[in-house]
Amino acid sequence: MNYTFQFGPLLNYLPQVVSGLWLTLLLSFVGIFGGIALGVASAVLSTSPWKPGRLLVRIYVEVTRNTPLLVQIFVIFFGLPNIGIRLSPLASVFIALVFNNGGYVAEIVRGGIEATHRSQVEAAESLGMTYFQTLRFVILPPALEKVFTPIVSQCVLLMLSTSLVSAIGVEDLTGAAMIASSETFRTMEIYLVIAVVYVVLNFVFRGVLNIAGLMIFTRSRRRLLGRA
Amino acid sequence: MRTFGTPEFLFIVYALRWTLTLTVIAFVGGGLMGILLALLRIARSRALRGLTTFYMQLVQGLPLLVLLFLCYYAPSLFGVEIAALTAAAIALTVNSSAFLGAIWESALRAIPRAQWESADALALTPWKTLRFVIAPQAIRLAMPSTVGFLVQIIKQTSLASIIGFIEITRAGQLVSNATFEPLKAFLSVAALYFAVCFPLTQLSLWLERRTARRGART
After folding, report:
1. Boundaries of each ABC transmembrane type-1 domain copy (chain B) (predicted)?
2. Which of A58, A85, B104, B126 is most deeply buried (CB count within 10 A of its CB)?
């Protein structure tokens, strides 16, 4: 191997890489929380007695889960202008990420809701609780707690897949790396650096989300502290 | 200028064979490596376990796109240029191996320890125990997630379009550039992915329900 690694030229690109990192964080943040909100709402709708709502969510979930995120981004960014909806690259990827993550989270949360025992719902009904009170106080808290680990895994995968936004020229971490690589030809060096950053981000996201979970769900916290 | 018609649609459909080729390579290659990783993860040697954990965590923490770029550009360090298909096949294989390894490891671990012990008491060697006692049950447990991950691989092959490999996403881009009708082009691409993935997703769900029923009965 007669190749000398030179990381020096990359230092000039530090500002771009840092702003790319911020954008990656922002994209992940919006994708994760927007996706969880959309996913929980869809999951509630998919277990509701309202039939058209259930059907709508079913179609939404199957479409997002059976097509690649990259193609979803292309349809939104390149395709929608054909019918007069022109979105900026950034707006397109925000929509695509929330839409995509929402579908996966919906399916996970639905599993949690369906695992709730029927008798608990009946008990809530006999106490005179409304549908929304039952959801808010009886069904959702344990359902979300049960599926919290798969949601964390899904959200970490979403953070990694934000790198796809670089395909339509959004300058996230990967996008910044593409620019630095084409201007300096230090391709291997820049992608190795970016790879390390992503691996670190992966652990940071997993850790932060798990801690957030322990703060939200008192029962898991008690179980953990009880064991310690 | 061309309009989006049947020939354009068929062009995308023909590219499906490359999507499927890539999927098969990644699934078979990743599967073989995954078996090895899963076995190493339950091995006695601590060093081997540590090494495999490191590999799996590293690959799972890396975006596939970055892995793809590394595989595509790394051989040029040695002055070798590789085809986009080769780079995509390597990247997808490495990626799948880590995820399939994790799925299969958890399936192996789901079999109660007592079964290993009783097989040992019957003087079965560890290999025989694995082959005749543990693996048959673990495979059944792992089926739903394995089919689920196969769907992931099919969708992940779309990333190969970014390094210029002509599978259906790239074919869609080419058609979109030639006809200026990106909506039709990319919706066709999405429909094709859906047509391939949806039956598999349903299969995975059916397997999962069947496993759950069996579990409830015993």
Report:
1. 16-204
2. B104
Per the domain annotation, does A2 fall within a domain?
A: no
pLDDT tens figures, A43-68: 999 988 899 999 999 999 999 999 99
- Report the CATH number at residue A127: 1.10.3720.10
Residue A54 burial class via C-beta count within 10 angstroms: exposed 0-12, middle 13-18, buried 19 and up: middle
Contacts of A201 in chain B (CB under 8 A): 61
A27 in a structural domain = yes
Closest CA of chain A from B139, distance in Å: 21
Answer whether residue A3 is part of any domain.
Answer: no
By the CB < 8 Å criterion, does B103 face chain A? Answer: no
Closest CA to B148 of B103, B106, B109, B201: B201
Closest in A70, A83, A198 to B158, CB measured: A70
Number of domains within chain A: 1
pLDDT in tens, A131-165: 889 999 999 998 999 999 999 999 999 999 999 99
Residue A99: pLDDT above 60? yes
As given in the structure block, the two tokens for residue A177 are 């790396």
Residue B147's identity, in one-letter code, is V
**Inter-chain contact B182–A79, Cβ cutoff 8 Å?**
yes
With CA atoms as reference, the chain B residue closest to A204 would be: B61
Measured between alpha carbons, how far is B210 from B218 in angstroms, rounded to an integer? 13
> Does B116 touch chain A if contact means CB atoms closer than 8 Å?
no
Write out pLDDT tens, residues B152-167: 999 999 999 999 999 9
Residue position matching structure tokens 């996201």 = A205
Chain A interface includes B182 (CB < 8 A) = yes
- Min Cα separation A150/chain B (Å): 13
ipTM exceeding 0.85, yes/no: yes
